[in-house]
User: Which sequence fits this backbone?
């Protein structure tokens, strides 16, 4: 009898986590590896949030809570959606999970049946397709391009929808590209969705507050209120509040869906860490004054990385609207050979050679569903980014 499940055979480990782990192992072995693969702010969690967690511990708030979050955090989520997005939810419409990933996973597990399709714009966060597969569904990936700013068009979305489509996953600003949909671009997509009432919308708004220049963030149910009753608006505290390890994500949507997600969570992890929940209450309700200064730092780092990568012949590096990633194209480098004798046949070969010969860890574009590219996370110190980009310049200059 087969021991491992068939479902497990449908998924693969996260490539970004694998690269980050490998970089750590190489550093431990004495290599001077610069890791630019982890999607996590290098800032410390703000003091007011840490102090709220300490107060919770001192007050003995260390017991089980309701499976999907304390009432105070659910209310804070409602207040956040009203304040930032003009969306009105009640606490009964809110689910809090162990990170944004669990929220997405719970929703997919609660709704997908074999044969159900989920439309996912590519490039995509590496976990979307595998979570769909694990839940029994079929990912339908729609490729964008460098020419479209790594955004899909309304016509592409229309063509991807079938009678079997259950969800459209929407992420803006995007991981891995940092591309953001302007309100008029998002309205074109929501107009398509209005014509297909069987399709639900799952948003991943994790990078909402990390936006640059003149970009204005918006989320689908905000742009098109008629989609409110079939939209799950997902977010979390990981990125904007530098709370990746605290593991708190949240979502709001129609109560029957939230109830189903609660059932999944009650029989899997149960409640998120109680202390982290109280910290998240402070994150959402407390001062937001550090978000703009942190965003300014990310914007400076973005400009630094783009300036240096754009000097490399054969590399095209579009300017992201938000998040803390760049997604350069290496189409002009395919077919060359590295100084170490590695044939650059695709972006995975490029990333492996870059790590082996230049000690810089990046994630290859195929992991995100669009090649030939690679992703850099610029959530690192300016000096680190400068040295990493210098090494990439030297590595590329030596290609023949």
Assistant:
């Amino acid at each position: 009898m087969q021991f491992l499940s068939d479902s497990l055979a449908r998924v693969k480990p996260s490539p970004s986590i694998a690269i980050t782990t490998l970089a750590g192992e190489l550093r431990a072995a004495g290599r001077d590896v610069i890791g630019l693969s982890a999607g996590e702010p290098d800032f410390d969690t703000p003091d007011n949030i840490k102090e709220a967690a300490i107060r919770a511990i001192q007050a003995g708030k260390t017991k089980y809570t309701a499976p999907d979050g304390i009432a105070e955090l659910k209310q804070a989520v409602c207040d956040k959606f009203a304040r930032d997005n003009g969306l009105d939810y009640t606490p009964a419409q809110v689910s809090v999970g162990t990170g944004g990933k669990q929220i997405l996973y719970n929703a997919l597990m609660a709704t997908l049946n074999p044969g159900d399709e989920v439309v996912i714009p590519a490039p995509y966060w590496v976990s979307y397709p595998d979570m769909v597969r694990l839940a029994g569904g079929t990912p339908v990936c729609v490729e964008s391009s460098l020419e479209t700013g790594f955004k899909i068009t309304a016509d592409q979305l229309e063509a991807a929808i079938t009678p079997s489509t259950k969800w459209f996953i929407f992420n803006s600003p995007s991981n891995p590209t940092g591309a953001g949909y302007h309100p008029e671009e998002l309205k074109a997509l929501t107009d398509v969705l209005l014509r297909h009432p069987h399709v639900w919308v799952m948003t991943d708004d994790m990078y909402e507050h990390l936006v640059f220049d003149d970009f204005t963030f918006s989320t689908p149910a905000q742009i098109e209120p008629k989609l409110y009753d079939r939209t799950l608006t997902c977010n979390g505290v990981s990125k904007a509040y530098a709370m990746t390890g605290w593991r708190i994500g949240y979502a709001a949507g129609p109560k029957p869906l939230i109830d189903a997600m609660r059932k999944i969570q009650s029989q899997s992890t149960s409640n998120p860490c109680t202390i982290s929940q109280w910290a998240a209450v402070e994150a959402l309700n407390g001062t937001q004054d550090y978000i703009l200064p942190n965003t300014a730092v990310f914007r400076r780092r973005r400009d630094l990385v783009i300036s240096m990568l754009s000097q490399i012949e054969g590399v095209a590096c579009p300017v992201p609207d938000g998040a803390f990633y760049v997604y350069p194209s290496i189409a002009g480098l395919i077919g060359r050979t590295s100084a170490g004798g590695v044939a650059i046949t695709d972006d995975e070969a490029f990333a492996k050679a870059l790590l082996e010969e230049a000690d810089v860890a990046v994630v290859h574009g195929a992991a995100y569903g669009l090649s030939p590219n690679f992703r850099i996370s610029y959530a690192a110190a300016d000096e680190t980014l400068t040295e990493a980009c210098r090494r990439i310049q030297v590595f590329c200059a030596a290609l023949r």
